[in-house]
Structures are given as structure tokens and as C-alpha cells.
Amino acid sequence: MRTAREFNFDGLVGPSHNYAGLSFGNVASFSNVRSASNPRQAALQGLAKMRALAARGFAQAVMPPQARPNFRLLRRIGFSGTDADVLARAWREAPVILACAYSAAPMWTANAATVSPSSDTQDGRVHFTAANLNNKLHRSEEHVQATRTLRAIFKDSNRFVVHDALPPVPAFGDEGAANHTRLASAHGAAGVEFFVYGRVEFDPSAPCPKKYPARQTLEASQAVARLHGLDPARTVFAAQNPDVIDQGVFHNDVIAVGNGNVLFYHEQAFFDEAATLGALRSALGNADTDLVPVRVDTRQVPVGDAVASYLFNSQLLTKPDGRMALVVPHECRENEAVSRYLAGLVEGGGPIDELIEFDLRQSMRNGGGPACLRLRVALTDDEARDMHQGVIMTETLYAQLVAWVEKYYRDRVEPKDLADPQLAIECAASLEELERILGLPGLYDLS
Ligand SMILES: NCCC[C@H](NC(=O)CCC(=O)O)C(=O)O
To answer: Which residues form the active site (predicted)?
Structure first.
């Protein structure tokens, strides 16, 4: 077995972060619609998490934001003239679409792509498939820049391959790593890739939610597994419980998280818990390890509390001593049932013996917790050396990015501010400088 480390690529929150209520099925997004956001604070909260985890010795990198507003989208649907004309008319005639074009949702990099480390793939390269995110207009074009960004960071084609997003149709709804977990004895060992889907396009009898959309299909998960050359003996597909989707669990990472051979999950997470665990156990047998389930039952934490606190949208990180830390948002402490549960968890003698807590309120108010904000990429030392180094979080980069945020970001954005052409100018100027800071000239198509 080769040694590998898990890099967490956190999304740097972009300067247009706002609350537009664009995600039907995501309770937080809907409840905070049209409230004022603070992009500066949002970005600083995310950077503080990256810095703290890097300082603890975890491998940490940053994924740059995307260019906003998305003029390509606005022009394609008939808004024309100068940029200012486009914005003014979109604001008058289609303010919600303007908000889509301004969305800073690429901050949630768990949705940027699905990643398979080289120890799982047939050709021994690290595979990425950008997620098409086609369930929501405001996210449906993220894959264009996500592909470009991943190809800029993971350029060496002997080691890395970045696949284009799947066809952007409902049959292939793909939400990336938010519905994908990898279980293995160690980051560098052959592992089990675990895909959780919300619906099956071509099987009307398969479970599916009634109220809210299921964003991920089985067909999409299978396509990604094929593209990545995964071993079927170490790949598991499981249906999410449609009832929890209807309670606001729009991605599986709102109700389960895995790391190493530990699966931390709510008893209601899966359509068939016993069958899912059975499939994982036998696949893990093919990867020479045992499953360690950490199961939370409804009496301890009702699904509503899990959704409100984002208990499972936590990062589960292996520490140098082999024990695990759970990275949770402040909301977990504020929720009585969850904080009681967590106190027992770390005292309980199980694999998780530490909590690391962050204030991520700006992102949380749009339904994005610690796990949504990061894309996991397990890399061998050679692979880590061959990726672009300018995105690795260091004290120096942290200081540069904080200064950059303070220079360009507003501390308040309300819906009406999206009509201000100056905001678009500020966003573009900030990205020009960011390309220089990260050493990625040409990262954006700013023409
Ligand atoms: N993984 C967390 C994703 C959260 C994201 N929220 C949003 O897009 C809300 C945007 C808004 O409502 O302004 C989503 O639902 O896909």
C-alpha cells in the first residue's frame, strides 16, 4: 500500500455571496430568502476553517470561486447590450434569474466533482468528474469553470484525469461528492466507493421523494463509476431514504459521512439500512477491512435536528494517532439533542474522540456546512507534488487571501444590490488579482 494524504479543497466564498432562496428542497436556502448577506464575513469564516485545519497538520487547499455574474447565461437567454444594460434589464424582467447568475454556490465544493483516488481506479490515475448539478439553474453551469479549475490544478495527465460533466438531463442528475463516500483502511489503500442516489430515472418502481426533488440519480452514479474505472467488487450503490429527502436532506452528506472504515450515519439515512450495511461490509471485505458503523438513532437525534444542526455535514478527519476528529458547525452546540449526543460520542470510547467547531453561519444560512465546503482528494506524495502548489493553504496564502477579501468584498449584499453594475465590476477585479495570488494565470475566461 502506498501512503496518501487526504487534501481538503475548500471553496473560497466569492464576493457575490447572497441569499436568493434558489434551492427548493434545501430548508435553509428557503428560510433565509432575500435576507442580507455578508460576503466578507462568509469568506473570512471559510478561510478561518482552512487555516485552523492546516495549522493542525491536515492537508488543506483552496478552490477558487467562479466569475459572477454569469453573463454567458444572461446573454444566452436574450439579455443584450453592454454589461450594464444586461444587468439592468435582467433586474427588471427576471430578478430571480439575475440572482442565479450571481450565485456564489460554487463555494460548496463537495458538489464540484466526484473524486476517485488512484488506488481505486483501473488506470492508476486520480479521476475527477465535474458534477452537472442540473437540478438547479443557479448551479447548472458551475461544471464549466469547475472542469477548467480542476484541469488547471491537476494538469499532469499521467497522474490525473478530469472528465467532463455528464449530459445535463434529469436522467443523469449528478451532485458530485455530496452523494459519494469512500471507505478504506487508509487513504492510500484500495477502498470502497459508496454512491447514494435519490431516484432512478428508468425504474418507476424505485423509491423516490414526494415533496422535494431527488437531485442524484442511480444512472449518474453508475456512469461516474464507469468513467473512473472502479472495481465493481468495491463499489456500492444505495438508495437514499426518500422520506428524509422530503424532510430537507437534499444531499446524502446532510445525513451521513464516512472516513477510513467508519460510517457515521443516521438510522433513517438509507432506504434499506440492513441491505446497505451488508453491501458495504462485503465490499469492504474485498478491500481487506471491516466496516465500523457509528449509528445515530431517531430517539437520540430526530431527523429535523440533524437537518437544523448539520450534525452529519461534518468533516471526519483522521488524526496522526489514528483517532478521528469531527469538524462541526456552531449550530451543533446550539441544538440541545445534538450537543448532548456529541458530548456522549466523544466520551464513548469509539473512533471519534474530538470535536472541532467552527462558525460558518454565513454558509449555513444557505444550507452549506463544513462538509459541503470541501472536496476531498486523497493523493500520494508524488501526486501531491505534481499538482499546482499555489492552492495549498499556508500561513502566507491565508494572509494574502484575507487581505484580498478585505480589499474587494462588501460586508452587505441585499437583493437590490444585484442591480448595481459596480458589484459586477468589483467581482471581476477581484478575480484578476486572485489569479495572480494563486499563480493560475488564465484560470478565468474574463474576456
Ligand atoms: N452542499 C450544500 C449546497 C447548498 C446549496 N445552496 C444553495 O445553492 C442556496 C443558494 C441560494 O438560495 O441563494 C444547494 O442547495 O445546492
So the answer is: 175, 251, 372 (nucleophile)
Give backbone dihedrals phi and psi of 319, rounded to 5 degrees, phi first. -90, 165
Q: How many domains does the chain have?
A: 1
CATH number, residue 50: 3.75.10.20
Q: Phi-psi bin for 25: left (phi > 0), alpha (psi -120 to 50), beta?
A: left
pTM here is: 0.98
Q: What is d(CA 97, CA 90) in angstroms, rounded to the nearest whole number?
A: 7
- Our measurement of the distance from residue 277's CA atom to the centroid of its chain's CA atoms, rounded to an integer in Å, reads 24
Note down the domain range covering 418.
Answer: 4-438
From 6, 141, 142, 175, the catalytic residue:
175
Taking only the tens place, the pLDDT of each residue in 203-246 is 999 999 999 999 999 999 999 999 999 999 999 999 999 999 99
What is the C-alpha separation between 447 and 445, in angstroms, rounded?
6
Cβ atoms within 10 Å, residue 35 = 12
Residues annotated within a binding site for substrate? 20-29, 111, 138-139, 215, 253, 366
The alpha carbon of 24 and the centre of ligand 1 are apart by a number of angstroms equal to 9
CB 17 within 8 A of CB 104: yes
